[in-house]
Write a sequence for this structure.
């Protein structure tokens, strides 16, 4: 088997997993207590309008047919219309998705920039005071709710110091980055706290690995040792960890968007829940599930690129 | 020594909160529900250590009073997943077979998913509120406990004393309940303690979003949300409840770490 | 003498207190010779090798004297040490799967040693790498250079590790149980390879092993270790024929001999405690030839022609 074959196989795995997600979301939505049609029509429901909307949505057909309709619609990009916004859900999501993607990517970048060097410092000084201090600080970080960190940053850096805007998104790339800095920092701090313990362990394993001793015994320069031997293996471990904790990242994104009023998909989820906007809730669950699958795929691919053992 | 320091500190913190939860009236300087129109949005001072809110209620007192709800959340949001997960994990781990394989796949998928998003999605279906939150957390959280329990049961199933019990002709139920379970459950219980810290985070996050404890119930997340509108004019309103969350979370996770270190030594 | 070790001691600071892993070791290795370092697990042989190459981690305190061609190794500045390692002293570990970096190709791992110690250009380095693979008996060198450790079989991996260690033509190779993790048939091949390389390259070899058979097969001289101390040193043929330390004698007696049906005589007692070194002889609690003085006075070395032994009862064994 070579890496090309492995990659194709990995991509092919996506298809059944997407199918499974689609069916799962469909089932979940059908488990809703109460009648979604009445919920959509609200107080203006009469028997006639109920019957008409039911037929229009195809909810009078049998379940398997409904499933087919749903899946077909998903593939065509037709996810229904939002009750609250009265526009197609697909368009709504397309408008909101970029903000969330940008926020998540920024957060991962900041989190790694923070966590990786600190993990090295902690591992290289294992059980001495720098290590204990770092572990203690991150332990506190783990116990601190994201929305609290967000509020603190918002209060101090935005409201008082006026260094950053108080939430929102802005227009244009520069404005986006400036508006997203605080939320990305908030999410990054939380994500870094989640990663830190395992990351420190992974770096410790690498530093104490026998192959590092053997490399040292060859008389290599410290720079080469660190860069080629230690860092490479540590990166592989880091990528694996990020993939493992993607779920935590997305959950944090939902909250962060709410705190900073970022017009992303996470805040849309919360709004839709309050508004009982079922089509949006359903579609968003689907989108988030797909997001997680893709994120895992991305980490697998990066790992394949870094680690020659994968796929051979 | 490695175990006693975190364990002692954690238990100390937890005892303090327990006292606050049980007899808030004796600890809180003011009546948490008491409006004081003479001191609206008062800054932190000697009279009001953490200030007052827009109704003149003392923030510190409200925070102390809210410990009851948050400790309850820590307990119940952990209990549901613990009980359901342990039972399923016990059965799946012991009997194995196709159920085990199916569970394995399911667990892999659920665990990778954003826990909070799933909980929120279920709360979306059921409607906001504490009870619904417990249900939602139980629906999603049992998987981690089941996986833990399954792992431990598999280990115990290989042990000699189990083979001995079988040879003696004990019934499966007896072996499971009186022999395997007591040994397998210990690490699961230790994890449960640390999980209570997560439960508080989940509960307060949902409270903040308005999906968990509903006003007028005082819960730390709800209290922080109350202060959100005033964060430019009166930022202290959100301060104390947040500190409470951090301390309570530390209390549980330190205790969990201490218990873990204690367990490892015994093993 | 190329390598001279005098009174080497290594103390590890562990959570449960200090552990004396090496408690006074003397060794000499002549150029081009093969010294076997034999002892049971925990006798301190691997730690000795690592201490010589200064590969131990921070929590180990090393004292004593290690001199390589007259230079003090333990006091060497980092730059000199770096040039010593690889180019003058090479080391081969026991488990190649752990010792080889899994994400670098074998070619890369050979190349970096050449880059560190030679001024060859890329083409010459590649030619040298192919030479090395050929030298250790790995065929299809060109393909193998681009492959990764997990693509090699166990014996091949060990050969590859030897090739990497020899890349910069060291004059001394420290081999830490190089065949213990391998099949018996492969063991034989690797040992023969090491001996052939020693002759072809004029290299000295220190072979650490717990297997007396390996020592008999490959070494000229042997040092027997117990509880971090050297018991006796001498020519292999002489030591095996007439051991002068009670431990060596017990070891030899415990080995299966040529007589089928002959009884094996095991060594009674427990393994020594390295956290509480005894004031007298370390082997005394288990020794069948012990005298009262053995418990209280640590035996000093007695020299007898090419033999050196530290046993109060040695003369009468």
């Amino acid at each position: 088997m070579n890496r090309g074959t492995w990659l194709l196989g990995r991509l092919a795995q996506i298809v059944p997993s997407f199918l499974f997600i689609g069916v799962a979301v469909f089932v979940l939505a059908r488990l809703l207590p109460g009648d979604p049609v009445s919920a959509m029509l609200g107080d203006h429901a009469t028997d006639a309008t109920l019957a008409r909307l039911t037929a229009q949505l195809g909810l009078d057909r049998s379940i398997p047919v409904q499933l087919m309709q749903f899946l077909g619609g998903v593939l065509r990009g037709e996810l229904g219309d939002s009750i609250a916004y009265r526009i197609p859900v697909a368009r709504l999501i397309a408008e909101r998705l970029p903000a969330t993607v940008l926020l998540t990517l920024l957060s991962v970048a900041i989190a790694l920039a923070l966590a990786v060097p600190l993990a090295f410092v902690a591992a290289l000084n294992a059980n001495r005071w720098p290590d204990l201090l770092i572990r203690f600080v991150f332990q506190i970080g783990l116990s601190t709710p994201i929305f609290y960190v967000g509020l603190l940053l918002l209060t101090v850096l935005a409201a008082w110091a006026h260094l950053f805007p108080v939430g929102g998104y802005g227009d244009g790339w520069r404005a986006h980055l400036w508006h997203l800095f605080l939320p990305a920092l908030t999410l990054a701090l939380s994500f870094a706290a989640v990663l830190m313990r395992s990351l420190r362990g992974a770096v410790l394993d690498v530093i104490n690995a026998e192959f590092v001793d053997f490399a040292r015994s060859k008389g290599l320069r410290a720079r080469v040792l660190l860069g080629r031997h230690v860092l490479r293996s540590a990166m592989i471990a880091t990528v694996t960890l990020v993939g493992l904790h993607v779920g935590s990242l997305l959950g944090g994104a939902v909250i962060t968007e709410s705190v900073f009023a970022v017009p992303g998909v996470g805040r849309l989820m919360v709004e839709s829940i309050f508004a009982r906007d079922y089509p949006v809730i359903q579609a968003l669950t689907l989108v988030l599930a797909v997001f997680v699958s893709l994120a895992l795929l991305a980490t697998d691919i990066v790992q394949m690129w870094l680690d020659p053992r994968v796929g051979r | 020594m490695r175990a006693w320091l975190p364990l002692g500190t954690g238990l100390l913190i937890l005892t303090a909160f327990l006292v606050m939860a049980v007899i808030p009236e004796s600890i809180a300087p003011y009546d948490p529900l008491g409006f004081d129109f003479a001191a609206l949005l008062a800054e932190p001072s000697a009279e009001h250590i953490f200030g007052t809110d827009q109704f003149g209620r003392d923030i510190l007192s409200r925070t102390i009073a809210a410990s009851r709800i948050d400790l309850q959340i820590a307990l119940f949001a952990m209990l549901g997943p613990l009980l359901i997960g342990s039972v399923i994990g016990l059965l799946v781990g012991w009997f194995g077979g196709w159920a085990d394989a199916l569970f394995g796949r399911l667990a892999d998928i659920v665990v990778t998913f954003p826990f909070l998003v799933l909980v929120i999605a279920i709360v979306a279906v059921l409607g906001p509120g504490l009870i619904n939150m417990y249900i939602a957390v139980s629906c999603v959280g049992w998987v981690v406990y089941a996986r833990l329990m399954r792992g431990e049961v598999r280990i115990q199933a290989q042990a000699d004393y189990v083979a001995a019990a079988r040879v003696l002709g004990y019934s499966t139920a007896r072996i499971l309940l009186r022999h395997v379970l007591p040994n397998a459950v210990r690490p699961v219980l230790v994890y449960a303690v640390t999980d209570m810290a997560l439960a508080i985070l989940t509960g307060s996050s949902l409270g903040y979003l308005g999906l968990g404890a509903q006003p007028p119930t005082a819960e730390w997340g709800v209290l922080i949300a109350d202060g959100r509108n005033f964060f430019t004019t009166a930022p202290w309103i959100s301060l104390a409840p947040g500190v409470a969350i951090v301390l309570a979370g530390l209390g549980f996770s330190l205790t969990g770490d201490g218990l873990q270190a204690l367990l490892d030594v015994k093993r | 003498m190329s390598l001279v070790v005098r009174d080497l001691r290594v103390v590890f600071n562990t959570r449960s207190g200090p552990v004396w892993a090496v408690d006074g070791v003397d060794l000499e290795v002549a150029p081009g010779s093969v010294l076997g370092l034999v002892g049971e697990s925990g006798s301190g042989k691997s730690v000795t090798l690592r201490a010589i190459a200064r590969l131990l981690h921070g929590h180990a305190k090393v004292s004593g004297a290690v001199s390589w061609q007259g230079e003090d190794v333990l006091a060497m500045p980092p730059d000199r040490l770096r040039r010593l390692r690889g180019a003058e002293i090479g080391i081969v570990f026991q488990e190649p799967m752990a010792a080889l970096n899994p994400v670098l190709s074998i070619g890369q791992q050979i190349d970096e040693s050449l880059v560190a110690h030679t001024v060859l250009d890329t083409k010459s380095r590649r030619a040298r790498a192919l030479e090395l693979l050929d030298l250790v008996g790995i065929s299809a060198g060109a393909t193998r250079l681009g492959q990764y450790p997990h693509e090699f079989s166990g014996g091949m991996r060990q050969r590859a590790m030897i090739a990497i260690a020899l890349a910069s033509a060291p004059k001394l190779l420290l081999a830490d149980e190089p065949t213990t993790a391998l099949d018996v048939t492969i063991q034989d091949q690797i040992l023969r390879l090491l001996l052939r390389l020693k002759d072809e390259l004029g290299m000295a070899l220190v072979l650490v092993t717990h297997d007396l058979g390996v020592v008999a097969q490959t070494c000229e001289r042997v040092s027997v270790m117990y509880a971090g101390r050297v018991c006796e040193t001498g020519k292999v043929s002489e030591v095996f024929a007439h051991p002068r330390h009670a431990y060596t004698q017990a070891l030899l007696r415990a080995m299966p001999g040529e007589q089928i049906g002959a009884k094996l005589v095991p060594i009674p007692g427990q393994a020594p405690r390295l956290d509480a070194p005894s004031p007298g002889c370390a082997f005394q609690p288990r020794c069948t030839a012990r005298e009262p003085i053995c418990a209280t006075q640590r035996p000093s070395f007695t020299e007898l022609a090419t033999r050196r032994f530290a046993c109060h009862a040695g003369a009468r064994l």
Notes: Residues 4-18+56-262 of chain B form a domain with the MetI-like fold fold (CATH 1.10.3720.10). The two ends of chain B are 16 Å apart (CA to CA). Residues 172-209 of chain B form the longest helix (38 residues). Chain B has a mean pLDDT of 87.
